[in-house]
UniProtKB/TrEMBL annotation, chain A:
It catalyses: N-acetyl-alpha-D-glucosamine 1-phosphate + UTP + H(+) = UDP-N-acetyl-alpha-D-glucosamine + diphosphate; alpha-D-glucosamine 1-phosphate + acetyl-CoA = N-acetyl-alpha-D-glucosamine 1-phosphate + CoA + H(+). GO terms for molecular function: glucosamine-1-phosphate N-acetyltransferase activity; UDP-N-acetylglucosamine diphosphorylase activity. InterPro entries: Bifunctiontional_GlmU_arc-type, GlmU-like, GMPPB_C, NTP_transferase_dom, Nucleotide-diphossugar_trans, Trimer_LpxA-like_sf. Its EC number is 2.3.1.157, 2.7.7.23. SUPFAM superfamilies: Nucleotide-diphospho-sugar transferases, Trimeric LpxA-like enzymes. This is Bifunctional protein GlmU. Pathway: Nucleotide-sugar biosynthesis; UDP-N-acetyl-alpha-D-glucosamine biosynthesis; UDP-N-acetyl-alpha-D-glucosamine from N-acetyl-alpha-D-glucosamine 1-phosphate: step 1/1; Nucleotide-sugar biosynthesis; UDP-N-acetyl-alpha-D-glucosamine biosynthesis; N-acetyl-alpha-D-glucosamine 1-phosphate from alpha-D-glucosamine 6-phosphate (route II): step 2/2. In the C-terminal section; belongs to the transferase hexapeptide repeat family. The keyword Transferase applies. Residues 266-395 form the Mannose-1-phosphate guanyltransferase C-terminal domain. Keywords: Acyltransferase, Multifunctional enzyme, Nucleotidyltransferase, Transferase. It comes from Methanocalculus taiwanensis. It is an enzyme of class 2 (transferase). The keyword Nucleotidyltransferase applies.
From TrEMBL, chain B:
The keyword Repeat applies. Catalyzes the first step in hexosamine metabolism, converting fructose-6P into glucosamine-6P using glutamine as a nitrogen source. One of its GO terms (molecular function) is glutamine-fructose-6-phosphate transaminase (isomerizing) activity. One of its GO terms (biological process) is carbohydrate metabolic process. Residues 2-213 form the Glutamine amidotransferase type-2 domain. This is Glutamine--fructose-6-phosphate aminotransferase [isomerizing]. The gene is glmS.
């Protein structure tokens, strides 16, 4: 059998659960260790032998097209198709008709998967569905297997009959395009791939492949666990300037044009992007990703956090276990709490994060006045402006003005 | 008005074209069809709405295709007259939006040269002309044919043995969408935006060749480059082409509609001849907004042509049962208004010549009447009539000019579309705010502006649900004065002309009773703004343009008031677009 070399990536959705980080970018462009999620997936696919990717874009398509271009920068061939409205997976696949030439892989663009597993999956008989075991199957539709074949798909229920869920990766032959033409609108008002899969299941021809490395990055706090994966595999490098009197421990990657000023103390694993200014006297603790063109100033401590591009955290700030968007500015003395005094798991807007230590989710272009206190579990929408000395707690929509 | 869609690329064309045509249904929906190219041309077309016909694309394979949703102008809506139209050999297919004005002559010549026509459309001449010029290169064949066509067109042409779509436009819209290894073209961007944001708006006279390797645009034989523009999806989500409601969109189409109708009526000498036959007197029957147009016809024809005109409401006509011999004219947008149809049938039974003025080709009224004059408003989706009223007015003015042989008036009509356009941007915010709080509004005018006031009141009440009354200004003191209070705004039409001085005294009388007055007059008027609470100035104009502008202004006022009050503007409660029962 010919090896599978073509892959359709579904990346048209906003990823609403990731708000406010999706205000100005689609979910797949959220960086993990300073690389968009989608790039990690494409690079893993490339390593597994995929040469050509067709990305189905929609929400924020310009950001994806501009970042990846024709793919030559990362050594692959990339084509794009547009799915403008979220009319289901079958509709997304239909928009890519005519661009794949033989058996192909299809994956959700927001999943994380290792190259080895992609390669292994691509050697499965066709058609095949990737599944993953979870300890909370009640949150998903589940997949029932007999041997290596899928025998049924069940909708989300309180008493799921299986712990295996559809992981969102498929192997198909071109024949799938004929099948999806027949699909009608579902009760949810979408063209669902499940309808075509049920056809294969009834013929007894749908194979299942169980993933081990699959990870669901659904909510902003899941970013912390996901970026850790990549930080743990990080290679140390220094393309910038490190002044005298800087202490660097563990694996730290420093980008081009970045200056680490004297007196800073950096503990890896940690990645700092291009053209940043860090210090003097900044303290950066393990599992921190700092994007490009950031400023981390004097007497600032950052721990286990993700900071996106062009954010300034310049004077006397503490940021712990938080995800901060791009273009934010922290007033002097503004801090984020990351631990409850009852030591219970932090919830954000009523949703359980699963983490006892969690700070806040801050959108893009949020401006803090001096000496603001952000409580643990807060979520601040993009473009919010916060008055000096404010106590911020809870969930705020984009563009909210928060005064004392 | 019709809608066209074309596709060339990597996917099966039929489904994309059908989905696209559904989005263009507002441009026409009396029949539809499509042709795909897969070695041979496969054709499917039929009468009726595409959205009722489903999406069956069986038998239409191919990655190149063209489609059309029709609003009849030449030939009644049926399967044969639906586009695409093939040549004699069945190897060339054409879809067309617009009107080929010299088609009768072209058709005669083509028939003489042995071509067989299958339809009554103007479009089919293009298929046969391309057939005559086609020698293996479709783009040069089309380029040779275009100079032979007079009138307006946006066309798409495909042919067996040529894997391209040739697109051309003159005075009809056409947009190209640049997708990912696929190209689209359509009458407007709505069918394109599901697939791409990148579009090229073709200029008049442009001819584009769409192929798998891209899009080449020429104008007058010279290659040109047109800018690729990015469509803002959020704005397009309004779907009605950037407008919040069909009514708003149709209000904005009125300059074009006025122009198209004046020209179409000029070119209907056979129907106009029916008016000339009877210079003694005329009878007009109509309902709703068409009745108000009929009242304007009365004022116009009586004053310009010295022909007495009697106007009756369709549903009342039968109770008078006058022994008539004069020509009877029925005005109905849809051509299906039951009361107007019944009146025309009665008149016909008495032996009167009957003339229909309608917007829908092939509608019932056209089969009853001896002659038909078409308004060219295109499909009107909003229940509240706007552009069909302006089209009826345009037809009436052109008929008046014809009957009175008044070339000055005819010249004047060429400029009215520009005047209407100026009216579309005049600020009405304060007047809207005042009307939004009212329980009752009076509209008053004299002479020609009396029917305009009646129509303005009808628009206001039907979409904003505010009680509105149109009155002849002189009648107000015979009763309705009792209702005036500071809570009942009065909208007064005080345009220049012989009614102006009396209108001014009427307005003063109203002001003396404490009612707020919104005065609609002419910019530069120094007296009117002094006595009214709010003054809406229209650009200086003559009487003819004045009625059109004042009518459009009152439509806009009703629209914004209804919008401000959150009403369902396109589908007002209890109303239907076409009233087919008595």
């Amino acid at each position: 059998m010919e090896p599978v070399t073509e892959c359709i990536l579904l990346a048209a959705g906003e990823g609403k659960r990731m708000r406010p980080l999706t205000t100005s970018r689609p979910k797949v462009m959220i960086p993990l260790a300073n690389r968009p999620m989608l790039e990690h997936l494409i690079l893993a696919g490339k390593e597994a032998g995929i040469q050509r990717f067709i990305i189905v874009v929609g929400y924020g398509e310009q950001a994806i097209r501009e970042y990846f271009g024709d793919g030559s920068r990362i050594g692959v061939e990339i084509d794009y198709v547009v799915q403008r409205k979220q009319l289901g997976t079958a509709d997304a696949l239909r928009s890519a008709e005519g661009l794949v030439s033989g058996n192909f892989l299809m994956m959700n663009g927001d999943m994380l998967l290792s190259a080895d597993e992609i390669a292994e999956f691509c050697r499965m008989p066709i058609p095949a569905l990737a599944v993953s075991e979870t300890d909370h199957p009640e949150d998903y539709g589940v997949v029932l297997l007999e041997g290596d074949r899928v025998v049924n798909l069940e909708e989300k229920s309180k008493n799921p009959k299986s712990r295996l869920i559809n992981a969102g990766a498929y192997l198909f032959s071109l024949e799938i395009f004929e099948r999806i033409q027949m699909i009608g609108l579902s009760r949810r008002g979408e063209y669902e791939l499940t309808d075509a899969l049920m056809g294969y299941i009834n013929e007894g021809s749908l194979f299942a492949f169980c993933l081990r490395s699959w990870m669901d990055v659904g909510y902003p706090w899941d970013i912390l666990a996901a970026h850790e994966l990549f930080l743990d595999a990080l290679q140390a490098e220094n393309l910038g300037t490190v002044e005298e009197g800087v202490v660097i421990k563990g694996t730290v990657a420093i980008g081009e044009g970045t200056i680490i000023r004297s007196g800073s103390y950096i503990e890896g694993p940690c990645i700092i992007g291009k053209d940043c200014i860090v210090g003097p006297h900044a303290y950066i603790r393990p599992r921190t990703s700092i994007g490009d063109m950031c400023h981390i100033g004097n007497a600032v401590e950052i721990k286990n956090s993700v900071i996106l591009n062009k954010t300034k955290i310049p004077h006397f700030n503490y940021i712990g276990d938080s995800v901060i968007g791009s273009g934010c500015n922290f007033g002097a003395g503004t801090k984020i709490a990351n631990l409850r005094h009852d030591y219970t798991v932090v919830h954000v807007g009523g949703i359980r994060t699963g983490r006892k230590k969690f700070g806040a989710v801050i959108g893009d272009n949020v401006l803090f006045g001096i000496n603001c206190s952000v409580n643990t579990g807060s979520l601040i929408g993009s473009g919010c402006r916060i008055a000096p000395h404010s106590f911020v707690d809870g969930v705020y929509d984009d563009e909210t003005i928060i005064s004392r | 008005m019709c809608g066209i869609v074309g596709y060339i690329g990597r996917r099966q064309a039929a489904r994309i074209i059908i989905d696209g045509l559904k989005k263009l249904e507002y441009r026409g929906y009396d029949s539809f069809g499509l042709a795909t190219l897969n070695g041979d041309i496969s054709l499917a077309k039929k009468g009726g709405r595409i959205s009722d016909a489903g999406s069956n694309t069986a038998g239409l394979s191919g990655r190149i295709g063209i489609g059309h949703t029709r609003w009849a102008t030449h030939g009644i809506p049926n399967d044969q007259n639906a586009h695409p139209h093939l040549d004699c050999t069945g190897k060339i297919a054409v879809v067309h939006n617009g009107i080929i004005e010299n088609y009768a002559e072209l058709r005669r010549d083509l028939t003489a040269r042995g071509h067989t026509f299958r339809s009554d459309t103007d479009t089919e001449v293009i298929s046969h002309l391309v057939e005559e010029h086609f020698q293996g290169d479709l783009s040069s064949a089309v380029a040779e044919v275009l100079p032979l066509l007079e009138g307006s067109y946006a066309i798409l042409v495909i042919a067996e043995g040529d894997d391209r779509i040739i697109a051309a436009r003159k005075a009809s819209p056409l947009v190209i969408g640049i997708g990912d290894r696929e190209l689209f073209c359509a009458s407007d961007v709505t069918p394109l935006i599901d697939h791409t944001r990148r579009v090229i708006y073709l200029d008049d006279g442009d001819c584009a060749v769409l192929s798998c390797s891209g899009c080449l645009i020429t104008t007058g034989g010279e290659q040109v480059s047109r800018p690729v523009e990015e469509v803002d999806w959020d704005i397009m989500d309004a779907r009605k082409g950037g407008f919040a409601h069909y009514m708003q969109k149709e209000i904005f189409e009125q300059p074009q509609v006025f122009y198209n109708t004046v020209h179409a009526v000029r070119e209907s000498p056979e129907a106009l001849a029916y008016f000339v036959g009877s210079r003694m007197s005329l009878m007009i029957v109509a309902c709703g907004s068409s009745y108000h147009a009929a009242l304007l016809y009365k004022y116009l024809i009586e004053s310009y042509c010295d022909i007495p005109v009697r106007v009756e409401i369709g549903s009342e006509f039968k109770y008078y049962a006058p022994p008539l011999t004069v020509p009877v004219i029925g005005i109905t947008q849809s051509g299906e208004t039951a009361d107007t149809l019944a009146a025309l049938k009665m008149a016909k039974a008495w032996g009167c010549p009957t003339i229909a003025i309608t917007n829908v080709v092939g509608s019932s009224v056209t089969r009853i009447a001896d002659a038909t004059i078409y308004t060219r408003a295109g499909p009107e989706m909003s229940v509240a009539a706007t552009k069909s009223f302006i089209a009826q007015l345009a037809a009436g003015l052109q008929i008046t000019a014809f009957l009175s042989d008044n070339t000055a008036l005819e010249m004047e009509l060429n400029r009215v579309n520009i005047m209407i356009e100026d009216t579309l941007t005049i600020e009405v915010e304060d007047a809207v705010a005042l009307c939004c709080t009212a329980q009752s509004i009076f509209f008053i005018g004299r002479g020609l502006y009396y029917p305009v006031a009646l129509e303005g009141a009808l628009k206001m009440k039907e979409i904003s649900y505010i009680h509105a009354e149109g009155y002849a200004a002189g009648e107000l003191k015979h009763g309705p004065f009792a209702l005036l209070s500071p809570d009942t705004p009065v909208i007064a039409l005080a345009m220049p002309g012989k009614t102006y001085p009396v209108m001014i005294s009427n307005i003063k009388e109203i002001k003396a009773r404490g009612a707020p007055v919104i005065g609609i007059g002419i910019a530069g008027d120094s007296e009117l703004p002094e006595i009214v609470d709010l003054f809406i100035p229209l650009p200086p104009c003559n009487e003819v343009a004045g009625i059109a502008m004042a009518s459009v202004m009152l439509q806009r006022l009703a629209y914004y008031v209804a919008d401000g009050l959150g009403c369902d503007i396109d589908k007002p409660r209890n109303l239907a677009k076409s009233v087919t029962v008595e």
